[in-house]
């Protein structure tokens, strides 16, 4: 239906804007879980309020945790104002948890449910039934949990919580998703013997996201051993102990900054993303390097990250294994470049919100592109593109990638732009602001 198609605005001039990107999905959902498992109440400030984080908040509420909106808390912490106050309570069922298509919810909450007393049923969007979860299910069973999944190793499933988990050492193949490791570590301090997660298999993707888990656990008072701190490769260890109720300020979502920075790169404009952290575990920080290699330049200023393009875009050969969620926007930019690109290390994207490799190849080619799938990525040969409908397969990052193309390719229509609400509410308004806000 045509009304479901959003005509992506074209940039008539180089963009020149300062943008505020909403909070990080990954940090918000980790902060909520850690606050829910803490010994005292806490705050999650400047949280992302999007489909994925609202599902996380609702899931925790279903388990007995208080997650309250607060707009006027007065701790004086920078970033005060919009916040969630999290009130940990006894975890219990029976409960039903809707995970939507949120990887963080479907993977981070079953371990929390194993700590609850009662039956916790999990289900979600049809796609959630296809996404890898067996590693978490098997690991939890090995750590003492009882889980019914009809033998599928996937959703829907029920965790029969008994109020606690023995924990200990467990082996998991996390090559399909780093979230398996993060899930077990986040609840690990509350397992009787803590947890030691040993990965076996092909390399784990998205390592910065595991780093984020480790850093946020430590900030909440947990003792964590990790490979990058001199520990054994592919082994993470969390000591049992109480987590602190804290006041956490969520950083802007740097992966969701990708389309805004791309706008500066491809139109030869300037975009400043406010509050870009000087140091962060977010994979989106690597956009500075990727988009500089593709032809732009950037500097960190008092205001944020100021990124400037020349309008000329170069192709790139990049292994995106650690930063897979940046792929859709990088691929869109690569399709507009002056030389071919090869994006590799991202076979696991076939099991993300949709099969992202197939979707990107199909949709870029439908606009006149020349994109082929490789075993572990995409080969992109730039061609003159034309307008048309860009299908998004209920994938927020496909939609933002299409908006990037639309800036310089007239007539791009984005099917179901509302799917951006997974992590970027009000995207069409933010995008209009980018184009309207001339400097
Ligand atoms: O832990 C997290 O917050 C995430 C980890 C990554 O998942 P995978 O390791 O499954 O790619 C990433 O792609 C996802 O968007 C968020
Ligand atoms: C892979 C992603 O999400 P999820 O947290 O659902 O895995 C993503 O946001 O790119």
TrEMBL record:
CDD domains xref list: EPSP_synthase
Can the keyword Transferase be found in this entry's annotation?
yes
Annotated localization: Cytoplasm
Q: Name one GO cellular component term.
A: cytoplasm
Provide the E.C. number(s) assigned to this enzyme: 2.5.1.19
Name the residues that bind 3-phosphoshikimate: 25-26, 30, 177-179, 206, 325, 352
Keyword line: Amino-acid biosynthesis, Aromatic amino acid biosynthesis, Cytoplasm, Transferase
A single GO molecular-function term is: 3-phosphoshikimate 1-carboxyvinyltransferase activity
Secretion signal span: none
Enolpyruvate transferase domain sequence ranges: 11-429
Catalytic positions are 325 (proton acceptor)
Pathway as given in its UniProt record? Metabolic intermediate biosynthesis; chorismate biosynthesis; chorismate from D-erythrose 4-phosphate and phosphoenolpyruvate: step 6/7
Q: Which InterPro entries match?
A: Enolpyruvate_Tfrase_dom (IPR001986), Enolpyruvate_Tfrase_sf (IPR036968), EPSP_synthase (IPR006264), EPSP_synthase_CS (IPR023193), RNA3'P_cycl/enolpyr_Trfase_a/b (IPR013792)
Q: Which amino acids does the record list as binding phosphoenolpyruvate?
A: 25, 103, 131, 179, 356, 397, 422
Q: What class of enzyme is it?
A: transferase
GO BP terms in the entry: amino acid biosynthetic process; aromatic amino acid family biosynthetic process; chorismate biosynthetic process
Reactions the enzyme catalyzes: 3-phosphoshikimate + phosphoenolpyruvate = 5-O-(1-carboxyvinyl)-3-phosphoshikimate + phosphate
The family note in this entry says: Belongs to the EPSP synthase family.
Quaternary structure and partners: Monomer.
User: Which HAMAP family does this chain map to?
Assistant: EPSP_synth
Give a short account of what the protein does: Catalyzes the transfer of the enolpyruvyl moiety of phosphoenolpyruvate (PEP) to the 5-hydroxyl of shikimate-3-phosphate (S3P) to produce enolpyruvyl shikimate-3-phosphate and inorganic phosphate.
Name of the featured protein: 3-phosphoshikimate 1-carboxyvinyltransferase
- Organism classification, top ranks? Bacteria, Bacillati, Actinomycetota, Actinomycetes, Kitasatosporales
Q: Which gene encodes it?
A: aroA
